[in-house]
Each structure stands twice: as C-alpha cells, then as structure tokens.
Amino acid sequence: LESSVMQLDTLSESVKGMQDEGFSNSEIINTIKLELSISRTKSLIGKLYNDEELTEQEIAKLKSGDVDDNDEELENLLRQFSIYTMEAYNNASASSLLIENVKDEIIENEIENDEYEQDIASIAARFMGNDEEATKKLPKPDYAYSPYDLFKLVRLEETIYKPLKKYVKKVEMKLKVLKSYLQDYEGSSELVASALGSKAALEQRAQAIVSNPLTSYRLIRRFAIKLPDVWAMLAEDLEEELWGKLSTIPTQHQPPNEKDWKESIEALFRIQYYNGYNAKEFANGNLGELESNVKLTAAQCMEVGLRAVALKQHGHALEWLYLAQNKHLNGEDDSEIDAKFLQQSLDYAMKEHNRAWDDNFKSRSLAHTYLYSHKINNPEEVEVMKTNSDLFKELSKQLRKQEQYGYHHQYNFMSLCAGESLQTEKERSRLYCWQEKTKHPYFYINPLNVELLNDDPYLIQVYNVIGNNLVEEVRNVTIRNLARSQVINYDDPDVNDVSKTRTSSQTWLDAYSLRNPEKLRSVMQLIEKITGLYTIKPGSSEELQVACYGTSHHYDEHLDAIQDPRRTITTGERIATFMVYLSTVEQGGKTAFPVLGTAADPIQGSGVFWYNMRKNGEPDKRTWHGGCPVAHGIKWVMNSWILEHENFLKYPCGLHAGE
Ligand SMILES: O=C(O)CCC(=O)C(=O)O
Ligand SMILES: [Fe+2]
User: Where is the Fe2OG dioxygenase domain (predicted)?
Assistant: First the structure.
C-alpha cells in the first residue's frame, strides 16, 4: 500500500507538471500508461538482474503472460489515482477504457517479450501458410498420431486464442463505443421527435435541441467525447469504402472539443444554481414548470458530478454523484458505469465537502456557497439539506422585505432568477396595469398595454411594441454578425477578453440592412411616444444593440450608465434604457432588478423602460439589473440607450435633490 501511495504521489506530481506545461489529457494518460508498464516490468527485471528470488506468482506470471493477479493492484491504483486527478479522468468510461488499455498493453508487451511465445507465433505463421518458404522445408506433422505434434498444436491454438480474444474484446469495446454514441443520438432525437412529431423540419428540431440545456450538453458531449473515439477507431480499421464515404462528409466547422464539453457541464451548474433546480428534477428534464422529456442517464449524471468535483463545487458534486448512484441502482443505466469507481468518487466528494466545510468554519467565512449548511455524513442528506447559497438567498430576501437594503444583493438577484418576487406588500400595492391611450393621439386608436413593475424608480413593461415579422427580420440580419460579448483587459487595454460576466453574443443593428428601414423607424417613433424622449434624431440614442443568449448565458448585474467621461463627453450619459425582447424565453432569462426586488419576463415584442440617471445627473444605483441565465429557450434583446445631451430639455434637472 505504501508503495502505491508513493507511486500515486509521484504520478500526481508529474501529472500536475505536465498539465502546467500544456500537455493534453490524452498525452498525460499515455505517459502514465507507459510509466506504469515500464515500472512494473522494470521491477521484475530488476529482481532477476540482482539474482533475487522471484515469488511463485511472479514466475507464473512471466511464464504464462497472465497478468490477472497484479491487475487488481494496478486497477486499484488507477482508480485511486483517477479520483485524485479528476481532470484527466473526468469520464467514468474513459477510466475503465484506460484500465482495459493498460491491461492490453501489458499483455501485448508480454507476448512480444516472451521468446517462447514468439517461437510459437512463428510456428503459427508457418502453420497457417504465411511463411511459404519455411512451410516447404518443414515436415508435415502427423497430429492424429504424434502427441508431440498435438502438443504443439495446443500451444499453437493458445497463441491464436490470445490475439483473437484480444481482438474480440477490442471489437466489443468498439461496439460499445459505437452503440453508446448511436444510442445517445437516437435517444435525443426520439425525445425531440416525440415532442414535435417525427415530420418536424430539421430547422424546428434544431431549435428544440438548442433551446434545451440538456440536449445541448448531450450534443456537445457527443462531439467532444464520443465522436473522437469513434473517428479514431474507424480510422484504424474500418472498411475502406465506408471510411471513404465518411471522410468525404464536409465539415464546415471545427467540432467541439474537450473544453466545450466541460463548459457545457458548467452551464448546467449555472442554470441549476441560479434557478434553484435540484439535480434530480433537472436531470429528469423538469426545468421549473417546464417538463421536457429529456433525461440524463446514470453515467451522464456521474460525469457531471465528477466535473463538479474538479471545480470544487462540492454541493453539486455530492448531489449529482448521489443521483448517479440512485439511477444506477434503479437500473436507469447505460452500462457505461463503474459502480465501484462511483462509490469511491462519492466518498471522495463527501470527504472534500467536509474538509472545505471545516476550512470555512475555521476562517469564519461563509463565502463558499457550494457547501451544504452542515457537514454531510450520509449522501442521503443531500436530498433534504440546504446549501449555504439557499440560506443566503433566504436571508437577503428577508432583509429586503424588512426594507434593509445593505445586504449584498447578489442573492436577491438569484432569488429573482429563481422566480421569487421580493417586493414588499407596500411596494406591490402601488403597482397596476393600464391601457395607454392618452400620451399621444395615435394611442387612442391603437392603445398599448403597459405594466408598472416599480413606481419609484419608474420601471414599466410595454407590450407589443414590435411585431413578429420585424422581430424575425432583425434576428435574421444580425445573427451572422453576433460575436461573444467582450470586456476590456485592464492589464492590456489593447486586448479584449471574452466576458465572463456577460456570456451572450451581441452586435449593432444597421437599420439599412433591413428590407424596409421605415418599419424600424416607426418602432422608434413608438418608443419616443411612450418615453417622451428623443431617440431618432442624431445623437439622441445609441445605435441599437442586439444580443442573443443561449441556454445558461447570462449578464451579471450592472448599471447601464457608462460613468466614463471619455466616452460620454460628446453625447452625455445613457439617461434611460428601452430594452425590447426579440423572443419569448420559456424558462429563466428574466431581467432582474435586485435592489427593486422585481424582474421582467422576456416576452417577445415587449419592451422594458427605466431611467438610469437621477435628475441631478447621478447614476441611479437602484437600477442595478442583469439578465438571469436562460434555462430553456433562446433569448434575444435589443437595447436602445437614450442619451443625455439631446434630451436635456425632455429630462431636465429636478426641483428636489433626490429626484
Ligand atoms: O438581457 C437582459 O435581460 C439584460 C440586458 C442588459 O441589461 C443590457 O444589455 O444592458
Ligand atoms: Fe443593462
């Protein structure tokens, strides 16, 4: 045991070193395999070299090429090792494949190294007529009458059996890989087909898949994890014809890689965390009130759990691994699971959780929100226990209701994303809806439905400001130009980093790319009528910004005011925002205002309006807001930021300081 622990430590260290040097996981795995087989062979050779006596087991092993005895030890080592380096062994099937491969490699080495075996192999070649010259020289054995020849035949068969057995194992493994890919694809498609009907157009099916975080994850995972194995296998020995056909399939994009796969799992955590979904409901396709029939299998839940372990999201790790175990025990399995490894992972996750809990307790910090509020001694507890972040949410909710606003409102934001309203009775009593008929004669014949979401500061949602046809056209002309939202890198201002606080994609709308720009102009006119502010004349508002959020994408809380004189000197601040939703989001994706305790629902064609500035020219800090992670659907918004200088007469200074 001591020596395996030492070996483990050395390995962990070298893996870390290799990771730091940028080696890929598969390169690391290959190195480990090599090291292990070399060190094991070395220790035997070393013993022989020093004239040390080998144990009977070792002698038998060398003679027969049978490695079973030691394999258990090796397997255990690998299992333990894989728990320590989740990054490299994120995938249960990868780890069992690895063990298989190591075994195979050792068998292979031993066949090659054993002269006796080689001799038999050459006899086999001759026997099968592969070595014609030699065959001619050899007398024809008389098997039925010669025990010696028969003996040779037995040995010969053994050498045939071994590679055949190995080949069958390989073919079975290949079949397993292929079947598991096909099953996952068919599983996903069936679910979509049963929801939409089998005749649904490809576009419609694609929309359904992309709208659902579970099918999105499964799609990315197939490309990142399953298909590379499939391609590698097919490239190895598939019939030329089929391979030829497959290799001519045009690929316009680089397929997803491991990074994408990891991110697709992290996306699940973000959705879960913000929307308050428990793993069990989520993995069974229940996203809030939306019940989809997409489920994750035991092995997939395990994979998700292992990823959480790697990310030190201990609460998620326990929840998902426990779920995987339950699914496995209930037979909801796809045969990829290694129950022993799962149990060890769960134990490890529990240990890590409790260790982090102790650390937190010692430092009197509750900052680690992925912990349960108590130590977990039995995985069953994860189904009833609250997490720190649940408690934080409750606390901040209470404080807000008591009109104490000092508490960090990130948790208010999370509560709002999970569908709570945090407004007090008093605040709510001032809210109402109305039909706007009077602000402009136009509204008299064509009234607008307006909802007051908050009265001070003023926050309204206006319905049907933009029609479905124009919405579709705007989406179609901007979709090509969307780019991941970026933020400036403060260390190097010439560099823009992909933003982690805003994970949507965005672009600016060029009105002239529309078939009929006049239609957009009439929307802007409508906005002018509703807000009483200029938006059309030059300099009165920014170009329209269109942003698109896929599942899990979000925008952290922020103020729209720029607060940088270098950027506002000519136009003035963004005094107000009119944000239009260009799609309806089925679950998640609300625009949440944590200080106000309310959130707007993304409903296609509606717009949300508020002032970012007080009348004294200061940013109104009560208008902090952000976009909650989309849980199901695709969210599109179009922002019109209305500017100060051209509107100074429309939004003049107030008479009182706080206005
Ligand atoms: O997506 C949302 O709900 C909010 C977007 C937003 O606040 C912005 O683009 O400034
Ligand atoms: Fe904003």
Answer: 540-644
Packing angle of the helix pair 213-221, 258-275 (nearest 10 deg): 160
Half-sphere exposure of 328 (CA within 13 A, CB side): 21
pLDDT confidence bin for 237, thresholds 50/70/90: low
Pocket (CB within 6 angstroms of ligand 1): 547, 555, 560, 591, 625, 627, 637, 639
Going from the Cα of 392 to the center of ligand 2, the distance in angstroms, rounded, reads 25
List of domains in the chain = 2-195 (no CATH), 423-647 (2.60.120.620)
Handedness of CA 212, 218, 219, 221 (dihedral sign): positive
Alpha carbon nearest to ligand 1 atom 10, residue: 560
> Alpha-carbon distance 338 to 543, whole Å?
55
Coil vs helix vs strand at 558: strand
Q: Tokens 């192999």 belong to which residue?
A: 121
Give the N- to C-terminal CA distance of the chain in Å, as an integer.
73
Tell me, in angstroms, the distance from the centre of ligand 1 to residue 163's CA.
62
DSSP code for 293: S
- What is the pLDDT of the chain when averaged over all its residues? 78
Select from 579, 582, 601, 636 the residue to mutate for testing ligand 1; criterion: most ligand atoms less than 8 Å from CB: 579
Which of 482, 485, 577, 639, when mutated, tests ligand 1's pocket best, judged by the most ligand atoms within 8 Å of its CB? 639
- The more confidently predicted of residues 434 and 479 is 434
Is 502 strand, coil or helix?
strand
Among all ligands shown, which has an atom nearest to the Cα of 628?
1
| Residue 88, token pair as written in the block | 């490299």
Does residue 233 surpass a pLDDT of 90? no
ipTM above 0.90, yes or no: yes
Q: From atom 9 of ligand 1, which residue's Cα is the shortest distance away?
A: 639
Are 597 and 409 spatial neighbours (Cβ–Cβ below 8 Å)?
no
**What is the rounded CA–CA span in Å between residue 655 and residue 659?**
8
CA of residue 56 to ligand 1 center, whole Å: 72
**Shortest-distance Cα residue to atom 4 of ligand 1:** 627
> Can you tell me which atom of ligand 1 is nearest the CA of 635?
1
Query: Ligand 1: which residue has its CA nearest to atom 2?
Result: 627
Give the C-alpha separation, 389 to 367, whole Å.
9
CA of 641 from ligand 2 middle (Å) equals 9
Considering only residues 100 and 215, tell me which one the structure prediction assigns the higher pLDDT. 215
| Alpha helix ranges (H) inside 455-570 | 468-478, 517-531, 565-568
pTM above 0.95, yes or no: no
Of all ligands present, the nearest one to the C-alpha of 553 is: 1
* pLDDT the model gives residue 52: 58
8 A C-beta contact, residue 592 and residue 417: yes
Buried residues in 28-44 as b, exposed as e (16+ CB within 10 A): bbeebbeebbeebeeee
- Residue that wins the pLDDT comparison between 152 and 430: 430
Looking at the CA of residue 558, tell me the nearest atom of ligand 1.
Answer: 7
Q: How far does residue 538's CA lie from ligand 1's centre (Å)? A: 24
Position 131 pLDDT exceeds 60: no
